[in-house]
Amino acid sequence: MALPRMTVITLGIANLARATGFYSTLFRPRPSRNTKCPLHTAARRLLSLRPLEKLAEDIAQNTPLPAA
What is 4-68 written as a DSSP string? Predict the structure, then answer.
């Protein structure tokens, strides 16, 4: 049986421009039409950078509330 593999890792970033520059020096930037979510290739994985507040909104919309 094949084990599931991570293919995309998303990081919440406070300063997107600064983080994009930093990760571009470590990993190969990947062309993307979405400039609000830069992608980088790292060891056959995608590293996605999202503004922290946008990532928090995504998590809040898709996370079920715990039972009381």
Answer: P---EEEEEESSHHHHHHHHHHHSEEE--S-TTS-EEEETTEEEEEEEHHHHHHHHHHHSPPPP-
pLDDT band at 54 (very low <50, low <70, confident <90, very high): confident
Domains and CATH numbers, the chain: 8-60 (3.30.720)
What is the phi/psi pair of residue 5, to 5°?
-125, 145
pLDDT band at 64 (very low <50, low <70, confident <90, very high): low
